[in-house]
Design a protein that fits this description.
By secondary structure, the chain is of the alpha/beta class. The chain folds into four domains: 4-158, 3-Layer(aba) Sandwich (Rossmann fold); 171-349, Rossmann fold (3-Layer(aba) Sandwich); 355-433, K homology (KH) domain (GMP Synthetase, Chain A, domain 3, 2-Layer Sandwich), CATH 3.30.300; 442-473. It is built from 14 helices and 17 strands. Strand 4, helix 3 and strand 5 (112-118) form a beta-alpha-beta unit. The longest helix has 26 residues, at 447-472. The termini are far apart. 33% of the residues are buried.
């Protein structure tokens, strides 16, 4: 399960700065005045292969009124959703009454909370944090979020170490191919789940928000094991009012992480909207295989169908490798065909390729289209091997690979995808430069070699002086 980390504290203690550092983005607004963040903001982070979700919150003071009271309610709800709570304090401002109020609330909540002393740059960290030890937290971290200092050790301590048996435990609990059904509210996700199961397993009602939690349903079809994950609909953040719905969004994002293949359901009557694209972006960031299901295809006239198809093809041009199905979950038309796409996506995501084959594909691609020159030197790509699955990860070794342009990386991705016949799954590339074996090697010479070198240097200086004299004459 993907851990959820909430950042809480007084206004202007650096929560948004830490959020941007942990997610490696600039999604949260940062300015040197309090009260800038009002709504909760969710971000996706990744550290050493361990994914996590971060929640940025507004500042808490303890005596909120009006708008500040609503911001405080948002922050307290984030504490309830989180698995780990990071309580940020300002080392420059010292311990305040507001900090003590927040600490008392965190103790009553029973959540796993950690004290994070921020803004320790420019001063002795131990002296700066001395006042905060009286709050009584078992673990205290000293960081400088604006300089990205101390955050690495913070994540190493907080995030669980991925274990080799974790995937096997998840596979035994949810056997077969795990299919996550996601989409906006009321697009027909639960109806599609019931149709794929052949029974009324989940509640279906013509009202958005019927499904509140992610439901895992193992079943068997034609001798193969599957697990369907029915999720809550994800609306735009400004339309989310109920606390339960906000918690459901977290469960949906975690279900995407658990799935092997994600079925994104789109309402054909409403067409492709921006929220669908946001969901697609999260699925691709998570590295999951994707199948597009355009639902409610029944009852539409030919002109409307042509318009919807044109819109899907135009706006999802970057997903030309993902299969798109036009279905009716209510009547079952086109649903059975999706299993072929799901199987192809799973096979592509979990495929294993030998190193010699990947290296041969790389050499053929380089021979057909050479990498560019950098400072008069050609970038050389030597060999490739597989670095992981779900999503497939290909590691390419060479020299000057850090200067490889994005266009050439896309060319390699398209070439590998075409030759390996990868369907529905994104491909991750890692480029590594070989280390210079002579970089830190000390030159050792015998006495005879040293005498010869000195003589050569003296001879070179005599030749240089002779040439200078001849030029003066």
């Amino acid at each position: 399960m993907t851990p959820v980390i909430a950042l809480v504290g007084r206004p202007n203690v650096g929560k948004s700065t830490l959020f941007n550092q942990m997610t490696r983005s600039r999604d949260a607004l940062v300015a040197d005045f309090p009260g800038l963040t009002r709504d909760r903001k969710y971000g996706d982070g990744n550290y050493e292969g361990q994914r996590f979700i971060v929640i940025d919150t507004g500042g808490l003071t303890g005596d909120e009124e009006g708008l500040d009271a609503e911001m405080a309610r948002q922050s307290l709800q984030a504490v309830e959703e989180a698995d780990i709570v990071l309580f940020l304090v300002d080392a420059r401002a010292g311990l305040t009454a507001g900090d003590e109020t927040i600490a008392n609330h965190l103790r009553r909540s029973g959540k796993q909370a950690h004290l994070v002393v921020n803004k320790t740059d420019g001063q002795d960290p131990d002296i700066a944090a001395a006042d905060f030890y009286q709050l009584g937290f078992e673990s205290t971290f000293l960081i400088a979020a604006s300089h990205n200092r101390g955050i690495r050790s913070l994540l190493e301590e907080l995030l669980p170490t991925p274990e080799e048996g974790a995937e096997q435990d998840s596979a035994s609990k949810y056997p077969g191919i795990r299919i996550g059904v996601v989409g906006r509210p009321n697009v027909g996700k639960s109806t599609l789940v019931n149709r794929m199961l052949g029974e009324d397993r989940v509640v279906v009602y013509d009202m958005p928000g019927t499904t509140r939690d992610s439901v895992y349903i193992p079943y068997e079809r034609q001798g193969k094991e599957y697990t369907l994950i029915d999720t809550a609909g994800v609306r735009r953040r400004k339309n989310v009012r109920e606390a339960v719905e906000k918690f459901s969004i977290i469960k949906t994002l975690q279900a995407i992480e658990d799935a092997h293949v994600v079925l994104l359901v789109i309402d054909a009557r409403e067409g492709l909207v921006d929220q669908d694209l946001h969901l697609i972006g999260f699925v691709l960031d998570a590295g999951r295989s994707l199948v597009i299901a355009v639902n409610k295809w029944d009852g539409m006239d030919p002109e409307e169908r042509a318009r919807v198809k044109e819109q899907v093809q135009r706006r999802l041009d970057f997903l030309d490798y993902a299969d798109k199905h036009y279905i009716s979950a209510l009547h079952g038309s086109g649903v059975g065909v999706m299993y072929e796409s799901v199987q192809a996506c799973y096979d592509s995501a979990m495929a294993k390729w030998p190193t010699n084959r990947l290296t041969a594909i790389l050499q053929d691609a380089v021979a057909q289209h050479q990498p560019p020159m950098v400072q008069g030197r050609r970038i050389k790509l030597r060999f490739a091997h597989q670095g992981g699955s779900n999503p497939p990860r290909i590691v390419v070794h060479g020299n000057q690979v850090e200067a490889l342009p994005g266009s050439y990386k896309r060319y390699l991705e398209n070439t590998f995808r075409k030759v390996l016949d990868v369907t529905g799954s994104p491909i991750r590339f890692e480029f590594k430069s070989g280390e210079n074996p002579y970089a830190n090697k000390v030159e050792r010479m015998t006495p005879r070699q040293r005498v010869k070198k000195d003589n050569d240097l003296k001879k070179g200086r005599r030749v240089k002086k002779t040439r200078q004299k001849s030029v003066k004459r």
